[in-house]
Every structure is written in structure tokens, then in C-alpha cells.
Write a structure and sequence with these properties.
494 residues, alpha/beta, 6-stranded mixed beta sheet, disordered N terminus, disordered C terminus, binds copper (II) ion
Length: 494
């Protein structure tokens, strides 16, 4: 609120106090942010699914805004070939984006889909009142509840379910953002996007295939299996990446649903011109990484000056590269070699996320589930996973790098004992090895973040590529080697 308006509102309030009862008769504004009773016909709020944001509000008076939000419990992918039963506000994780104007009276309708199993409610951090609406909105499946509030404070606010066990409802994806625009609106930008981080706890390991259950113990211990932007690995990568062109301004509404982790939000290759940190009214300039608390949000703005892929990460970096907290903003347009001369971010940063999709991996999982997995399925899936995981060192062509990384192409070491390679991937390799007559004495780190089928598919791909002898490694063989544990020293002699 502007200063004169604020002072006017304060004076009104003081006048109200001085005149006692007679002042209560009118609906005169009582608080800063209260611009009087709603004017005109009620308006139905436009709600959007992530990463989209409803259009800016051009209205310059307070209105009654009706928000209808439905809770839907549904299975959705959380990673390739991995599904999870999410509990959602509006069918997506995060939930629908709500946009209102400061001073609006919001009539909130919360519906709980009849097919749902659980009761739910909503706590909106933008509400002034006990529980943020939670107590007024407890709703059983097949029911609807309604309450109203005046949006007194402008800013960006998290909403979430607050039904017991609260942590579980939040961990299952029950959060979203509500923007309360200042009365004069926000400065115009070219793109507004909606991104929200959350941590997820599944019974199986990272990328373990199939339907995964919620793991309460991991959640209590704060040991997430996944840390994600917009509820699934790859929600904002490949052909679903955010988009902008060179010379544009981008505003990201970034929330953090938690339930546990605090986010160190960073965009690789960009500097935030401004950040409304903690979603508050102060603006911080020239920021590299901004902290977003669990149950908090920020508004970050930057302009796009150089084309290429910009990678959104939680800079607690294992979360980005090993738990999924990675999204991409693709900036199109002409190069500006004066600002930046180099090549685009490649698979080194993006890994298999640099690919448009991982359909081959999903197809192989489906085939395996039906007992119909072919060598060709494994080769296709393995090819995708090789990108970024192995190609960084052994090169996309399998040629290796002379004196540093041995070749996988026509490798006599590999051909001699293909099954030995399972142990090399799971446990790493050190010491002298001779490959095609050249000696290497280096270190290959363990790749045991890969699942059994991932290891099997990568090795099957390698065995059937670049003049190697062919053959096949199965997930069952990998499982056996994993279960046996690391040997004292992997036999590296030829
Ligand atoms: Cu809930």
C-alpha cells in the first residue's frame, strides 16, 4: 500500500476508535489493505495448473472473488516408470495457482472429490484468522465447505492441507501458491511462471520402478527419496521446459511446500535482478541463490540476455542431480558473444535430463512388467541412461579419452568378461587396467545410484554398440551382484 493511503487508513481507524459505536455502523475500512466492501458482481477466479500463472488483474477496485478448488487423490508419475498416489488441490502438484487483489473478499469453496479416501482441508497463509481457514474447511470425501476472508496483505503465499497427519498430507503434494496483488498491480513482464519445490518419501529407492508407497519413517527422519520441482522428475525438462526468448523479462513465483526441506533456489547461468525474498515486501537485488523456507515463497525476476538452457536447481546439489530437483528454462534467440562466448550447457550438467524425454526407459519398464523385455528394449533404454551418466567420461561414442578414460568401444577388457562390468558399475574401479593395449591407472567412482534395471540396460547397450560383441545383462544378475556387496578389491588385473 502507498504511504498516503496507509496514513489515510490509519486516520480512519483512529477516527473509528474516537467515535466509538457510531463508527461501527458503516463498512468503512478498518485495516490497511481493506479498501471497503466488494464492488460489482462476484467474479470467479481464474485458476491455473503449474507452470502457468493466471493473467494479471487489471481491476482497480475491491471485488468478491469466488474460488472453487477440488481435492483429487490420484496416481501420477513421479519419475520415469515410477508412479505415486498424490493428493492434490485441483489435480496437480503443486495445486492450482490462485490470483486475487489486495482488499478482495474471497469466497472459498473447497470440494473433496467423492472418489477420494481421505478428509482434507486448507490452510492459506494469505488468510488472517486462526488456522488460515483450516478449521472452517475440514471436508469429508463427497462434501464441500465454504468460508470467506478478506485478502488484507499483498504478497505471495503458500496454501496447504492441514489435516492430520499434516506432514503426510503435505508430503503427498497438498500445497500451492496464492498471489495477492498490490492494488496497483505488479510491473509488467514477458513471462510469469509457477514453480514449487517439494520433498517426497517413497518405499523404494530413487527411480525404483512401479507404484511406490509413502514411507512415514523416511519422512520423519527427513530422508527424502525425491526432491522435485512441480511434483515429478522431468516436470519442467526436455519438451516440458519453461520457455523465453533473448531480451525478455521472466518472473518466477517460487514456492516451497516442504514438508521438511529448505530450498537454496538457484538458476545456473542467471543472476536474479530482484528477489522478493520470503515473499515479503523487501526487494533484494543481484542475488545468486535465494533461500526459500518450507511453507514459504519468493518472487524472483531476471532478464534473459544469452540463449541456451538455464537450469533451475536446489543448490543443495545432491538434491538436483540425484533426487530430481532440476528444471530447465530454454531461452531462444540470437547469441550475444559479448556477454557470453562459450557453448551451451550440455549433458555434463543435465545428464539424461538433456534428452527430450525418457520414453525408451518407460517402454522398457512396461515390457519388463509384462515379461516381454527384449534386448532391443534394453539397448534403447540403456542408450538414454548412458547419456550423462557414463558419456561424461567415456564419451558419447564410447571412445574414452586417451590416457585418462579407457574406451568402451571394442574394449577387449570388457569382451573378456562382460559380467565383471556389473561389479565395476556398482562398486567402481581403481588400480591398473589395460584396455586395448593401453594402460590406465585411474579411478572410476561407483555408479550405485543406478537401479538394477538401469545397470542392466546400460551394460546391454554398451555390449551391443560400437563393435562390441553383443550379449545381454539382466536386472536379476545385477541384483545378485549388488546383494553380494562390494569385494575387498575389484579384480582389475587383465
Ligand atoms: Cu489433505
Amino acid at each position: 500500500m502507498s504511504k498516503p493511503l496507509f496514513i489515510a487508513a490509519r486516520m480512519l481507524r483512529i477516527a473509528g476508535l474516537a467515535f466509538g459505536l457510531c463508527a461501527a455502523a458503516s463498512a468503512a475500512p478498518q485495516w490497511p489493505g481493506d479498501f471497503g466492501p466488494p464492488i460489482g458482481e462476484p467474479i470467479h477466479a481464474v485458476l491455473t495448473s503449474p507452470p502457468h500463472v493466471p493473467p494479471p488483474i487489471t481491476r482497480r477496485y475491491p471485488a468478491k472473488v469466488i474460488v472453487e478448488l477440488e481435492v483429487i487423490e490420484k496416481q501420477m508419475p513421479i519419475s520415469e516408470g515410477v508412479t505415486y498416489t498424490f493428493w492434490t488441490f485441483g489435480g496437480t502438484v503443486p495445486g492450482s495457482f490462485i490470483r486475487v487483489r489486495q482488499g478482495d473478499t474471497v469466497e472459498f469453496h473447497l470440494k473433496n472429490n467423492p472418489a477420494n479416501k481421505m478428509p482434507h482441508n486448507i490452510d492459506l497463509h494469505g488468510v488472517t484468522g486462526p488456522g488460515g481457514g483450516a478449521a472452517s474447511s475440514f471436508t469429508a470425501p463427497g462434501h464441500e465447505s465454504q468460508f470467506s476472508f478478506k485478502a488484507l496483505n499483498e504478497g505471495i503465499y503458500v496454501y496447504h492441507c492441514a489435516t492430520a497427519p499434516v506432514g503426510m498430507h503435505v508430503a503427498n503434494g497438498m500445497y500451492g501458491l496464492m498471489l495477492v496483488e498490490p492494488p496497483e498491480g505488479l510491473p509488467k513482464v514477458d513471462h510469469e511462471y509457477y514453480v514449487m519445490q517439494g520433498d517426497f518419501y517413497t518405499g523404494g529407492r530413487y527411480r525404483e520402478k512401479g507404484l511406490q508407497a509413502f514411507d512415514m519413517e523416511k519422512a520423519i527422519d527427513e530422508r527424502p527419496t525425491y526432491v522435485l520441482f512441480n511434483g515429478s522428475e522431468g516436470a519442467l525438462t526436455g519438451d516440458k521446459a519453461l520457455a523465453a526468448d533473448v531480451g525478455q523479462t521472466v518472473r518466477l513465483f517460487v514456492g516451497n511446500g516442504g514438508p521438511n526441506l529448505v530450498s537454496s533456489f538457484h538458476v545456473i547461468g542467471a543472476i536474479f535482478d530482484s528477489v522478493r525474498y520470503e515473499g515479503g515486501s523487501n526487494v533484494q537485488k543481484n542475488v545468486q541463490t535465494t533461500l526459500i523456507p518450507s511453507g514459504g515463497a519468493a518472487v524472483v525476476e531476471f532478464s534473459t540476455k544469452v540463449p541456451g538452457s538455464y537450469v533451475l536447481v536446489d543448490h543443495s546439489i545432491f538434491r538436483a542431480f540425484n533426487k530430481g530437483a532440476l528444471a530447465i528454462l530454454k531461452v531462444g534467440g540470437a547469441e550475444d558473444k559479448l556477454v557470453y562466448s562459450g557453448k551451451e550447457v550440455d549433458s555434463v550438467y543435465l545428464g539424461d535430463r538433456s534428452l527430450p524425454n525418457l520414453n525408451a526407459v518407460t517402454a522398457a519398464t512396461a515390457a519388463a512388467a509384462k515379461g516381454k523385455l527384449t534386448v532391443q528394449d534394453q539397448v534403447q533404454a540403456g542408450k538414454d541412461l548412458f547419456t550423462g551418466t557414463c558419456s561424461v567420461c567415456h564419451q558419447p561414442s564410447g571412445s574414452g579419452l586417451a590416457g585418462v578414460f579407457p574406451p568402451l568401444a571394442k574394449s577387449d577388457f570388457l569382451a573378456t568378461d562382460p559380467h565383471r562390468a556389473i561389479g565395476i558399475l556398482l562398486h567402481g574401479l581403481t588400480g591398473k587396467v589395460t584396455v586395448n593395449g593401453s594402460e590406465y591407472n585411474s579411478v572410476m567412482p561407483p555408479m550405485n545410484q543406478l537401479n538394477d534395471d538401469g545397470v542392466a540396460n546400460i551394460l546391454t547397450y554398451v555390449l551391443n554398440s560400437w563393435g562390441n560383441p553383443g550379449g545381454r545383462i539382466t536386472a536379476a544378475e545385477v541384483a545378485k551382484v549388488r546383494a553380494a556387496g562390494p569385494p575387498k578389491a575389484v579384480a582389475a588385473e587383465h
